[in-house]
Write a structure and sequence with these properties.
Layout lengths: L11 E4 L17 H23 L6 H4 L2 E6 L10 E9 L13 E7 L4 E5 L2 H4 L3 E3 L5 E3 L4 E5 L16 E4 L4 E2 L7 E2 L3 E8 L2 E9 L8 E2 L10 E8 L9 E6 L1
Parallel strand pairs: 10-16
Antiparallel strand pairs: 1-9, 2-3, 3-4, 4-5, 5-8, 6-7, 11-14, 12-13, 12-15, 15-16
Length: about 250
Amino acid sequence: MRRIIITAVIAVAALAGVGAVAVATGNGSTVTRARLERALPIAFANQYAEQAKLLGHSGVTPESLHAVAMCDKHGPDVADVGPGADWICLMGWTDPNVPMPPEGYGKFELNVHSNDCYTAGGPSKLVGFQMLTDKSGAEVNNPVFEFDGCFDPNTDNTPTGTTYPSVLNVASTILPVDASGKVGAQGCAGTISAASGSVSLGTISYRLKEEATATLRVPTAVPADAKDVTFTFTPTAGMAPPSAATIALQR
């Protein structure tokens, strides 16, 4: 859920958070992070178990899924409280028929209303598309593709403590070179090593808060004939791409 877009030459997105679990109570709304983190997994698990019945997957119950969620509203500088269509929840669960990705969660987008109800939609790669083929071969609606839920505004509002590791993804497809011949890089927590062919361009450290924006500069200019730069990430917190990313230069 947590996302870091680093606005430099190489864009890196960090999904999920490794830090705070505080619950904001800002404007007095009953819609809070803690209540969503408790309510969403229950609604999801019921719909997911119904999907399992349609598909003929045995042994899947709301209880067996052990679903847990981590929610955020509109980034680090906005209180996690109040209705809106800008809620993101990361949710993990256990289903032997559908292995979770390495980071252990799927991203759900929520439109939360002031009446303490919401509509949630999850990632198709984990929950499937709007229509599915059931065990009898019929095309039916997928109950977990998009679903509604509500929560009691008087329920527990203490932090759940649910967190997920950050994940770095390279988003750039082209790498500009500035007038000094240097290129930029972006990150989340760890180090980034840059090289053009056999020429090292140096290593920079990065530590950015969740959903923040920053620019990091590689210290050494690229060779005049360089065509691309390869970035290797070594995280000290969260996760990073398992292999180096090579980005073309734009002069």
